[in-house]
Write a structure and sequence with these properties.
With 431 residues, the protein is mainly beta. 7% of the residues lie in helices and 45% in strands. It has four helices and 30 strands. The longest helix has 12 residues.
Length: 431
């Protein structure tokens, strides 16, 4: 192991706060290291872990060492753990005119394409909901065409000019399939360029969670000045952006009234039995069908707060029953959601109850092998939570030295073992 990495890992010592705290958790799984001595390891979460976690934050997933002490760990999004072949590919990009990006609703596009249909030139104008043009200013946002990326985009890297002035700004990434409706995919992304005594520090890598035909890099607050010369994508070439794991839920029909919760007529309610990071939805029906739907969700049971709109209205359809048939595309959600209760509202009466399909990409628990092996992953607690750990900064530091495609060594889980069981989901009695 490199000396700098060893010092970094040693600085992340086991936390005594959760020492001997395994009895505060429902169950655990022994961790089997595939590369002992690697220092940093990742465990891809499965359905059993999502169904065992009780907190939407997943902070009741904790890695313990052999002495029962919690080691530094965090849950990392799937986009940060691509373990397939990752390639850097330059993508077509276009500066967008400045203006009030929050009020802008559509982009008017004037494009020029070559004989193969690829975009060669694009002019964009932002328009508000009333159709009035927004005053054009120098570009502060950028549109990226991802259709020829050739795989799932893990991150974007901004190529800045050598004369780039110092900047410390925050950006977000929006996604769209039609250049009209935009969905936030990633927020609060830092872009940093600092210079001192002939040295330059740059942070220009923007992780991407989610997939869309077009991405829009938009400033959050004051953006500074970015002299963008190129935009490259880290592409997992073996992954299809539409792939992932899917959960098929069978719902129950109910009659809702506006006086109760704001709905009127027949609705379909679904219960998800875990804290899965849902980022896509689809509606499946039997045979050829088409219908317009709206999707709502809320966190827990009947008293779990107000219903929140999540998608729609959109038309879900199926024409033809074989692989050659036509089907509507899944709907992307505004970031991963861990709600347990979901509701589909049809715009018109339906012939049969639909199947709600919830899509997600499994996350990973990344942990530092501090303390004494062997390790175990515990899940499910209303009494103890995982302490914050600087895992994201550690990964970034290592990738600056080893390359952006580096990922922690894989680890797997052994057979499930019961700890305190369901009583761990009850708050600790007052002393």
């Amino acid at each position: 192991m490199k000396p700098w990495l060893a010092l970094t890992l040693l600085a992340l010592a086991p936390s005594p706060a959760l020492a001997d705290g395994r009895d505060d958790f429902v169950r655990e799984w022994p961790v089997q290291l595939q590369e002992p001595g690697a220092g940093a390891h990742r465990i891809e979460l499965g359905a059993a872990q999502y169904r065992s976690a009780s907190l939407p934050s997943l902070r009741d997933l904790v890695v313990f060492d052999a002495q029962g002490r919690a080691v530094p760990a965090e849950v990392i999004a799937a986009s940060e753990n691509a373990d397939g072949p990752v390639e850097s590919r330059l993508l077509p990009w276009f500066p967008l005119p400045g203006g009030d990006a929050e009020q802008a609703r559509t982009i008017a596009i004037v494009s020029e394409r070559d004989d193969d249909g690829r975009m060669r030139r694009l002019e964009a104008r932002l328009s508000d909901a009333a159709g009035a043009g927004v005053r054009v200013q120098p570009a502060t946002a950028w549109l990226v065409d991802t259709r020829d990326a050739g795989g799932r985009i893990v991150a974007l890297t901004l190529g800045l000019a050598d004369a780039q002035p110092p900047v410390d700004a925050r950006y977000r990434i929006d996604g769209s399939d039609d250049l009209r409706v935009w969905t936030p995919l990633q927020a609060d992304l830092p872009v940093l360029v600092l210079a001192q005594d002939g040295r330059t520090l740059r942070r220009v890598r923007l992780p991407v969670a989610g997939a869309a035909r077009y991405l829009r890099v938009v400033p959050e607050g004051r953006s500074g000045v970015l002299l963008v010369q190129s935009i490259a994508a880290e592409v997992d070439v073996e992954a299809d952006p539409r792939d992932g794991s899917w959960l098929d839920l069978q719902g129950t029909a109910a009659t809702a009234t506006r006086a109760d919760d704001g709905f009127d007529g027949t609705v379909y309610d679904f219960v998800l039995d875990g804290r899965f990071p849902v980022d896509r939805v689809d509606v499946a029906t039997v045979g050829d069908d088409a219908g317009e739907w709206r999707l709502w969700s809320r966190g827990s049971g009947d008293s779990g707060g107000a219903w929140t709109p999540r998608a729609g209205p959109w038309i879900a359809y199926r024409l033809g029953t074989d692989d050659a048939g036509e089907r509507s595309r899944p709907q992307a959600l505004d970031g991963p959601l861990r709600d347990r209760h979901w509701r589909l509202v049809p715009s018109s009466p339906t012939q049969a109850a639909p199947t709600l399909r919830l899509g997600y990409r499994p996350e990973s628990v990344v942990f530092v092998a501090a303390g004494t092996p062997p390790y175990a992953l515990a899940a499910g607690s209303a009494r103890s939570q995982r302490d914050p750990a600087p895992i994201a900064g550690l990964l970034e530091a290592i990738r600056e030295r080893r390359g952006a495609s580096w990922v922690p060594a894989p680890a797997t889980l052994g057979p499930e073992r019961t700890l305190a069981g369901e009583p761990a989901l009850q708050p600790r009695p007052p002393a």
